[in-house]
Amino acid sequence: MARQVTLFIFVLSLGFVLGQISYTIPEEMAKGSLIGNIAHDLGLQIKRLTSGKARIFTRDGDGYVELSREKGVLIVKERIDREALCKQTTQCALHFQIILENPIEFYSIAVQIEDINDNAPTFEKEELKFEISESANVGATFALERAADLDVGINDLKSYTLKPTDNFALKLNNNAGVNKNVEMVLQKPLDREKQEQINLVLTAIDGGEPQTSGTMLIVITVLDANDNAPVFTQKIYKASVTENSPTGKIVAAVTASDADDGSNIISIDDKDSAQNGDVKCFMNNNIPFVLTSSNINFYSLVTDDELDRERASEYNITVTCSDEGVPSLSSSVTLTLQISDVNDNAPVFERSSYEAYIVENNTPGLSIFTVKATDADWNQNARVSYILEDSSINGVPVSSYVSVSADSGVIHAVRSFDYEQIKDFQFRVKAQDGGSPSLSSNVTVKVLIQDQNDNPPQVLYPVQTGGSVVAEMVPRSADVGYLVTKVVAVDVDSGQNAWLSYKLQKATDRALFEVGLQNGEIRTIRQVTDKDAVKQRLTVIVEDNGQPSRSATVIVNVAVADSFPEVLSEFTDFPHDKEYNDNLTFYLVLALAVVSFLFITCLVVIISVKIYRWRQSRILYHSSLPVIPYYPPRYSDTLGTGTLPHVYNYEVCRTTDSRKSDNKFGGAGSQNVLIMDPSSTGTMQRIQSEKSILDEPDSPLEIDRKSGEVILTGQIDYEKAKLLQIDIEATDNGGLSDSRVPSLSSSVTLTLQISDVNDNAPVFERSSYEAYIVEKQHTSADSGVIHAVRSFDYEQIKDFQFRVKAQDGGSPPLSSNVTVKVLIQDQNDNPPQVLYPVQTGGSVVAEMVPRSADVGYLVTKVVAVDVDSGQNAWLSYKLQKATDRALFEVGLQNGEIRTIRQVTDKDAVKQRLTVIVEDNGQPSRSATVIVNVAVADSFPEVLSEFTDFPHDKEYNDNLTFYLVLALAVVSFLFITCFSGYYISEDLQMETVPHPVSLQPPCDSILSSTLLRHFGNRDSATCVQLRGVQDD
């Protein structure tokens, strides 16, 4: 047993596995026979089949195959008869699924059933009878019944034989097969006088191994033809008779014989003599025969006109003969004459042409229609056979579409038809009789495919883009009837099956939007307000008019906002790839920032330590100053100059309700400044004083005199003051022990820049407005001329009406009014908009065409709309440029791109078509779209040609590369700097001695105030501070 196994595994990221495997087995296998080791072929363990509760699922419920979990094999559960399962279909397969649980895994299994030669060819009749005249010409053909074989492929019917072959030979049209005619040809003249009946055996043989055959007996009756003249036994007869011979005396006897069958000579005899023996014969009138006397008392019946068997197949002729005697005597005889048929009438169809209808998605083999022809001839000459004439439909033989039964004229569908691929086709059927030579006639049959609602609507716009969110923006100032967007859908079906209706299925706010039932336009049904949510989600269902109807849904995201930042705060769903790239970029930037910060901090610390040690060495060994002044960061030693040379500007961005925040403003006054005054002999302490220059009662700022913190105490209004400058002065208390020492001071300017926040709503010029349509249409009071105040847009408003009042100048005045309706006429001010294919920037979207595509194959459909109206919206599609113009064409009205010839292996994989869509306006406007077509049978072949990837991915890859490079460089510099510092420290420790003898204990620091500032300083600082106290 030969088995073929094909395995395809697809691993998805959704937590389950899909796979496909195929086996091939012969039919009629015994119950329990092995089909295949499914566990081994799927790469599964047997315990997985048991724990996963593996089971077989079939849609039709037929259980031909059984799964053995314990052995992990598939076995035959029931005998499989391929002919009962698939009939005459060549490809026969059982399709089912194996389902496992925990986790769920689906495996599609296909078991191909191979045909075995278990059916012999059979004939419908066991015996076939013919009546053939012996005058039939050599070469005359006689149609025979074909045999039928239920097997397919190589086991199907292959050939015929006819035995014996003395008079007849077998003729096959082309190669013998199921749809071929079998004829018997006369190759040697017949002779009824030698053989009145001939028996032949027709044998049908299939191509199986071993071969099987079926037979049919052919019985031929040879009809007689008048091909032999009478022959007398003697050339001369002599006789004498005496008169008065008695009555009944035999005078003479003549004998003649005729080898033919039946009576072909009329002879008469009168025993009298002289006039009494003279005989004359005549017959009835109105018949196409005459009697001619070829000799005395011999008459011949001769035709006087053309005979037509179809008018009269039999004549009853009465011949009366009378003598010349007195009285005259007569006698009569009736001759029945049957007219033999010759093949002089061709078959005639009942109608001059036929039209047949068939619904698409039919079952192959379905009977479509029956053609009928009749032949006025008789017997074999009237036997009609139907033959499908050779022709092609779109380059494909017509025999692959339909077949014709030779005996009945029933037309069968060979394939399942698709209305979207072919809508109608026609062919010719020939009716041929069985005469010799045969006569024929033909008729045209047109088959029209009827559409079935087998395709749901396809939404072309808005395009559903996976995880990303595409939103239509609606300004909050939108009026009633504002066009938000238009749902565009198509249905490849036809007629009412393609009539689409649009309905709003779900919506965040049903009172805000409506969908046009026929046009799919989404419009507002009330005024948009500030209370409406920014994020609106609409679910629109598109339904066709078929029975049963099919539908599709589309999600439309609407953003009710006036600016993009407001939209982005609501629509935060981005594609997974972009989120991944953003996360990666974020962490790379974060890592780069952290490493850079550590690097810079390391540099600052190293430089600070170096400076500190340099200054310390100078103070310890070279300076005569009694103290070391310590200055907080960013302040310099004033050394009693009384000024701070630096002005510090702070930009502080706070909201108007900053008083609720725990954060506080910090300024120069909040810095702790330690001043070591060399003229003072008192204890060192931190001396700090601040003076507020914002003592005004309405000042929003206040300075804490103790801590120097600038605190927000009131409301800050950007619209009143955008910038605040604060002068802060810090003074000390002078000498602690000597009041004669004046106090010193320094000042700093704090610039506070106020940032604006959106704390003011828009204010209209008036508290309310009143507008009337009549006032918007300027009317001349004198002439009544109506002027347009604004420019109208047909796409926004198509018509409107208002009332005009005419009033006289009487007292009291009288008036009447009239309604004026203004209809806006469309102008071709909008070019066509291509909705499909969608142009996706740098990415390439290609339509795939298999290399087996027939002529007329539907590649794709360019869908465009024009928001104009009338003829301005009539669109035509043209192929502007193409890689191969001889391969594709574009429908002028429908935009369908189809193949115009058979696709070959020589055609390039990458095909680029430029389609121009043009409206019918004056002047016309147009749009172009690029359609990429991939002529291939597999995706790898396509990917090798289409290598253009999105620009965003390339940008992200470059950004990631440079971030990683920058991170590596900064990390290298940080490690190098840090390592170099420690190496230099080690070298310095080995070469420079430490002043250990000068280090007193740090607990001798003068005061707690100094400990707060110098508690972590090294021992050298403690020595100097101790020295200051001793002085």
From TrEMBL:
How does this protein lie in the membrane?
A: Single-pass type I membrane protein
Q: Which UniProt keywords apply?
A: Calcium, Cell adhesion, Cell membrane, Glycoprotein, Membrane, Repeat, Signal, Transmembrane, Transmembrane helix
The record's listing under PROSITE patterns reads: CADHERIN_1, CADHERIN_2
Q: What is its main location?
A: membrane
Q: Which GO terms describe its cellular component?
A: plasma membrane
- The superkingdom listed in its UniProt entry is Eukaryota
Q: Which GO terms describe its molecular function?
A: calcium ion binding
Q: One Pfam family name from the record?
A: Cadherin
Name under which the protein is recorded: Cadherin domain-containing protein
Organism source for this protein? Crenichthys baileyi (White River springfish)
Q: Supply the source organism's classification.
A: Eukaryota, Metazoa, Chordata, Craniata, Vertebrata
